[in-house]
Amino acid sequence: MKPRILVAREVFPEVIERLSRHFEVDANQADVVLGVEGLKARLADKTGVMTAVSDPVTAEVIAAAPGLKAVCNFAVGYNNIDLAACTRAGILATNTPGVLDDTTADLAWALLMATARHIQTSEHWLRAGHWKGFRMTDWLGSDVHHATLGILGMGRIGQAVARRALGFDMNVIYHNRSRLPADKEAACRATWVDKATLLREADFLVLLLPYSAESHHIIGAAELAQMKPTAHLINVARGGIVDDAALVSALRQRRLAGAALDVFEGEPKFDPAFLELDNVTLTPHIGSSSRATRMAMAMTAADNLIAALSGQRPPNLINADAWR
Fold first, then answer.
1. Active site residue 267
2. Which of 118, 127, 210, 228 has the fewest CB neighbours in a 10 Å radius?
3. Which of 10, 60, 201, 267 is labelled catalytic?
4. Active-site residue 285, yes or no?
């Protein structure tokens, strides 16, 4: 008999077909958000699960799934998984790094350009019939070329964002817990600075940190106050990194020129005050959302699951202690 697995969110049929060659698949193609209770019920007889970042694999869920051996996220982030509880139970946990770097970097740039040049709000203004002709002072935006791009979190995606800045002849600065090797800095033409300098000098600040207890509200009222009033904040990382209430206040009081957000605290819910602002661009967590990239993410998660339940070390294991 094949091992039984759960695919907790809708995925492409090709992925289900691949998994079905190895497993008996319980596929949530209706895409119902299962939550803790739903996962407990569906995982009681499963040996593996493919999850999204919206699926809370908590200690309670793990305790209700005695046969579970692998939790495979189709995402880079994994703050939805209680890694310590997985490791204690000998459950392998995996993610999908690398496959979404360029697609997410592309969106970061789309949002950067949108907030710099008022793309979203000016389009809404045009659609509403307000455009009556040329005016010298309509929709004055911020130049991107020759500006200073700041990146907080200089991993693979951060480096991809930095490389794209070369075409705009930007000054690129970054802050990371550890400085990049010299060859990678040279490839990005990027300079490491401390966090205070990053906040003070960036014209465009792109956030690319993983979410953790340490990064919670790493950009709050105090940090926003250090930024230029002409600066723009772009978050394509995770909700909770920014104190959304503090950001709303800064934008409302024009202490910040603009922001562009793909992620929010408590998403899919978000602070409704954002909808009242004309200097923020909002997208619904679509950083990795191209068909090719989402397919690659799901197939990578499938490969991880197949390896884990075949007795092999999965290629993207994030809790090595569970393997040992």
1. yes
2. 127
3. 267
4. yes
Given 4, 22, 216, 285, the catalytic residue: 285
- Homologous superfamily of 4-99+291-323 in CATH? NAD(P)-binding Rossmann-like Domain (3.40.50.720)
Domain locations along the chain = 4-99+291-323, 101-282
Strand 92-94 versus strand 171-175 pairing type: unpaired
For domain 101-282, give the fold: Rossmann fold (3.40.50)
Residue 22 bears catalytic tag? no
Kind of pairing between the strands at 258-261 and 204-207 = unpaired
Rounded Cα distance between 60 and 40, Å, is: 8
Mutual orientation of helices 156-164 and 101-116 as an angle, nearest 10°? 50
pLDDT in tens, the chain (324 residues): 899 999 999 999 999 999 999 999 999 999 999 999 999 999 999 999 999 998 999 999 999 999 999 999 999 889 899 999 999 999 999 999 999 999 999 999 999 999 999 999 999 999 999 999 999 999 999 999 999 999 999 999 999 999 999 999 999 999 999 999 999 999 999 999 999 999 999 999 999 998 888 999 999 999 999 999 999 999 999 999 999 999 999 999 999 999 999 999 988 999 999 999 999 999 999 999 999 999 999 999 999 999 999 999 999 999 999 997
Active-site residue identified among 238, 252, 254, 276 = 238
φ, ψ (nearest 5 deg) of residue 107: -65, -40
